[in-house]
Amino acid sequence: MSSVLERLRGGLVVSCQANPGSPLRDPHIISRLALAAQQGGAAGLRIQGFADVQAVRAVTDLPLIGLTKTDRDDTPVYITPTAAEAAQLAELGSEIVAFDATLQPRPESVQAIVQAIHAAGALAMADISTLDEARAAYDAGADIVGTTLAGYTPHSRALSTADWPLMDELREAGLPFIAEGRLNSPQDAAEAVRRGAHSVVVGSAITRPDVITTWFAGAVRDAH
């Protein structure tokens, strides 16, 4: 694997994202979250959107996994759905570009997006939801796959926890993977490593206080 993936091996990647409407939805604030994650020991960062990638790239040399989220009427694929978006993320300084590689109707093929990412000098991270999608992504030239979309497609397991069975399947098939999705505690992150993850991405549980507050507020409310 490349030197960038080697830098991430066995490490924590922190996803610094904020949804529209969040008080944190500002590139400068995202860059501060990224620096806080770096100070805490993050090996890399996962960043959404061109402006945020630019802002974070300006303040850190940690490896960046860049992506876009684009809602389209013609496809359920929304994580970096086009080769043009993927190439721009690479040009802005993302060493790795993440994109949806699920087996859903899509505007452009997985292979076309991988080729665009490689042509722009970056590595391709295929966000998948099943073992078959992981195999197909590697066949199309992806450098690494992530379990990011497990549970978010109609044909994957609907779980309230991380998709541990998928991680086991990937390990047993000899397919390297980055664990991501519903990893909400240090114990979850460690378990992903024990199940064979190359590295672990955690977002909401670290960088989204609005989401974390709903967890605590719900628990307190339920206790009454």
TrEMBL record:
Molecular function GO terms recorded: N-acylglucosamine-6-phosphate 2-epimerase activity
Reaction(s) catalysed by this chain's protein: an N-acyl-D-glucosamine 6-phosphate = an N-acyl-D-mannosamine 6-phosphate
Name the Enzyme Commission number(s) assigned to this protein: 5.1.3.9
Which keywords accompany this UniProt record? Answer: Carbohydrate metabolism, Isomerase, Plasmid
Q: Which GO terms describe its cellular component?
A: cytosol
Q: State which pathway it belongs to.
A: Amino-sugar metabolism; N-acetylneuraminate degradation; D-fructose 6-phosphate from N-acetylneuraminate: step 3/5
Presence of keyword Thylakoid: no
Which processes are annotated in GO (biological process)? carbohydrate metabolic process; N-acetylmannosamine catabolic process; N-acetylneuraminate catabolic process
Quote the function comment for this protein. Converts N-acetylmannosamine-6-phosphate (ManNAc-6-P) to N-acetylglucosamine-6-phosphate (GlcNAc-6-P).
Which PANTHER family did the record assign? Answer: N-ACETYLMANNOSAMINE-6-PHOSPHATE 2-EPIMERASE-RELATED
Family of the protein in this entry: Belongs to the NanE family.
Spell out the protein name for this chain: Putative N-acetylmannosamine-6-phosphate 2-epimerase
Task: Give the organism the record lists.
Answer: Deinococcus ficus
> What lineage does the source organism belong to?
Bacteria, Thermotogati, Deinococcota, Deinococci, Deinococcales
Gene name? nanE
